[in-house]
Amino acid sequence: DAKTTQPNSMESNEEEPVHLPCNHSTISGTDYIHWYRQLPSQGPEYVIHGLTSNVNNRMASLAIAEDRKSSTLILHRATLRDAAVYYCILRERNNDMRFGAGTRLTVKP
Amino acid sequence: NAGVMQNPRHLVRRRGQEARLRCSPMKGHSHVYWYRQLPEEGLKFMVYLQKENIIDESGMPKERFSAEFPKEGPSILRIQQVVRGDSAAYFCASSQTGGPQPQHFGDGTRLSIL
Question: What is the pLDDT of residue A36?
């Protein structure tokens, strides 16, 4: 099964950009790359997903390497509200999502 | 537009009792997924249902656990004869279609076993 590797934790200053990396060297050609985040005592929240091309939405941008073996979630201007655990997930089958330990992002004022 | 609703938010049971967790998906969503999260860990997939059908239960323990999503009403995750190891947060998610579409999560039910 294709797995993802993320740093355990990262820190950022408020109003600065944040780049959250994810390695997925065994990704298959049909795997989508999804990002979710989880705030304390809440369920995960969808952030963004992509297959091959870079993607942008109102929350974040997703940069996917040309060989698809890594990707980066970009928060353009971190706020205190962005402090959460961020999960990078490969959709191996149509519906099964495998969450790893994620990256705990701390945002300093 | 109500999101995914789970109840109860907190549930306390004694060992040997039954726990019933309910999930109402977002309006218009017919696909429901259940996940379990142990403290300080990521979510683990349990089961995927589409109205009245179990599509994938590969993450569900073989004994004591069952799930249903009837034609009318919420999806139910049932745990019989609970044990201490069942203590966890149980999250439900829904999506409009299957495939690699985003899943929308509820805020979970925190189950504590005394």
Answer: 96
